């Protein structure tokens, strides 16, 4: 098994001669130089999916390593996603399988358990949680964590839960994940509502009111379109990629050009996803540029899905500066690269928060 030191040496060897490396004589290896732009991740799971099983299997040591890599890779901030339906899922030969549905109250209890554990571990690592997006600047020496929840299952069909989650510090809810819920339809299951449910529409209105980021990752096209038609603020699609060949791994999670433009037309942003859908890191960079060609540079960001991604072509936050360097080599201007790396994230999230404050 490759050690961390060997991995870092390999990264440095690959990137030899590129402008983002600087030699750290005390440590004896090259590390990424501090970026001039914001580095933001629209979607990550540094605690492995937050399930009790994973925490029992040394997930905290994995989290410590991931946070260390965040600092080394100069991540400015990102959405840390609790996984609302984690106890309902198990890996299968063709992707995630659903064990059962939640009983009343179970989803909320699981959310509270994950939240308490995340706060405990991140507190021990001196990584602050933030609800203030104005703190998202390139001058920060350590990343800020912004709370998100993946899947609206934890709401237990109670609209008041959104206000409670907001008071907990949650600033983004991804409406659906893998387990079908009562908000809307997802990409990986048969439709039940042909878009948003009545409850899902109420959730959108409440999130708009509070200034929370609505995440349509995993949502079907019809659900995404229904959200876009209803929302009064930009939306985000935290982690996906444009469709290519239908037989690619997890191709069902890719989106069409029309789907992408529905998000962009709200003023929103799509986080380019370095999953195993991409054949290599270089192809991932090309797929970021494909997104730019379709929706424009103002609507593209990065959503890694670290460390719960499927066969990722990017496996460590130490590689984050490589995205910036690769995009620059492809001919993008410094300004456009800065937008993709995190500038668009700050812009769209600030607009979402402002839209909410105007209603209060």
Folded structure, characterized:
The chain is an alpha/beta fold and 360 residues long. The chain has a single domain (39-359), classed as Metal-dependent hydrolases (TIM Barrel), CATH 3.20.20. It is built from 11 helices and 12 strands. It has helices at 4-14, 52-56, 59-72, 106-124, 160-167, 198-210, 221-230, 257-264, 281-295, 320-329, 334-359; strands at residues 21-24, 29-32, 40-44, 77-83, 89-92, 95-98, 144-150, 170-174, 213-215, 236-240, 269-272, 300-302. The strands form 4 sheets. A 5-stranded parallel beta sheet has the order 3-4-7-8-9, with helices on both faces. Strand 10 (236-240), helix 8 (257-264) and strand 11 (269-272) form a beta-alpha-beta unit. The longest helix is centred in the C-terminal third of the chain and has 26 residues, at 334-359.
Short key terms for the protein model shown above:
3-stranded parallel beta sheet; disordered N terminus; alpha/beta; 11 helices; globular; TIM Barrel; 39% helix; 360 residues; single chain
Fold blueprint:
Elements: H1 4-14, E1 21-24, E2 29-32, E3 40-44, H2 52-56, H3 59-72, E4 77-83, E5 89-92, E6 95-98, H4 106-124, E7 144-150, H5 160-167, E8 170-174, H6 198-210, E9 213-215, H7 221-230, E10 236-240, H8 257-264, E11 269-272, H9 281-295, E12 300-302, H10 320-329, H11 334-359
Parallel strand pairs: 3-4, 4-7, 7-8, 8-9, 10-11, 11-12
Antiparallel strand pairs: 1-2, 5-6
Short description:
This protein has 360 residues and is an alpha/beta fold.
Quote the average pLDDT: 85
Q: Estimate percent helicity.
A: 25-40%
Structural class, by secondary structure, is: alpha/beta
SSE arrangement, N to C: HEEEHHEEEHEHEHEHEHEHEHH
Span between N and C termini?
54 Å
User: How many alpha or pi helices?
Assistant: 11
By DSSP, the count of extended strands is 12
Low-confidence parts: 1-30, 48-58
- The quaternary organization reads as single chain
Tell me about the biggest sheet?
Answer: 5 strands, parallel
The name CATH uses for the topology is TIM Barrel
What is the 3D shape?
A: globular
Rg result: 19 Å
CATH C-level class is Alpha Beta
Percentage of β-strand residues: 15-25%
- The name of the CATH superfamily reads Metal-dependent hydrolases
Strand order of the main beta sheet, please? 3-4-7-8-9
CATH architecture: Alpha-Beta Barrel
Number of domains: 1
């Amino acid at each position: 098994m490759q050690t961390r030191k060997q991995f870092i040496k390999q990264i440095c060897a690959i990137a030899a001669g590129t402008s983002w490396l600087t030699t750290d004589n005390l440590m004896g290896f090259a590390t990424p130089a501090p970026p001039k732009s914001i580095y933001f991740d629209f979607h990550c799971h540094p605690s492995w999916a937050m399930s009790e099983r994973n925490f029992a299997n040394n997930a905290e040591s994995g989290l410590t390593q991931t946070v260390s890599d965040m600092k080394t890779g100069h991540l400015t901030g990102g959405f840390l996603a609790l996984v609302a339906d984690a106890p309902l899922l198990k890996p299968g030969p063709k992707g995630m399988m659903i064990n059962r549905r939640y009983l009343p109250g179970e989803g909320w209890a699981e959310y509270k358990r994950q939240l308490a554990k995340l706060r405990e571990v991140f507190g021990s690592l001196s990584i602050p949680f933030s609800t203030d997006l104005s703190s998202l600047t390139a001058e920060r020496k350590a990343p800020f964590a912004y709370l998100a929840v993946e899947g609206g299952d934890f709401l237990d069909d109670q609209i008041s839960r959104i206000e409670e989650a907001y008071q907990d510090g949650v600033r983004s809810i991804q409406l659906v994940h893998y387990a079908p819920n009562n908000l809307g339809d997802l990409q990986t299951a048969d439709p039940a509502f042909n878009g948003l449910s009545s409850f899902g529409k109420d959730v959108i209105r409440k999130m708009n009111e509070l200034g929370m980021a609505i995440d349509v990752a995993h949502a079907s096209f019809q659900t995404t379109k229904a959200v876009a038609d209803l929302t009064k603020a930009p939306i985000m699609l935290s982690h996906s990629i444009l469709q290519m060949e239908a037989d690619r791994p997890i191709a069902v999670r890719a989106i069409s050009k029309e789907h992408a433009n529905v998000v962009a037309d709200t003023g929103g942003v799509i986080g380019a996803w370095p999953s195993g859908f991409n054949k290599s890191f270089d192809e991932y960079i090309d797929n970021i540029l494909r997104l730019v060609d379709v929706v424009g540079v103002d609507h593209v960001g990065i959503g890694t899905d670290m460390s719960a991604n499927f066969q990722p072509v990017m496996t460590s936050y130490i590689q984050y500066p490589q995205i910036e360097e690769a995009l620059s080599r492809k001919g993008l201007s410094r300004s456009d690269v800065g937008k993709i790396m995190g500038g668009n994230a700050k812009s769209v999230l600030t607009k979402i928060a402002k839209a909410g404050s105007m209603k209060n």
